[in-house]
Write a structure and sequence with these properties.
alpha+beta, two-stranded antiparallel ribbon, 109 residues, 2 strands
Amino acid sequence: MWNSWVTAQGIDMRHPGVQSRADLLEELQRMSATLTEFEVVRYTHAYTLREELERYQTRVYSDTWKIPEAIFEPSVQELHARLIRDYDSLDKEVEDEVRFAIDMVRFES
């Protein structure tokens, strides 16, 4: 929701390099590599919408770093309004599953 609003303002939100895991896997396959994924940890993270909004407002996420202030501030205001409209309260608790995995790539010689 927030990314699409910022993108509509003409800001390219993409980081350099591969844009998705599917693209990475396709490129590794093209290079005849073997990929093995090791899940290191998985847990549930609970937070409120207010806490998440604050992370955006303080530019914790690297997605926010290159957005000019003239676009960033209205984007946060729009995000705030959307959260209130969709959830009625910023104090609603949300749970996400967090998963950290390491990919091991091997190239046969």
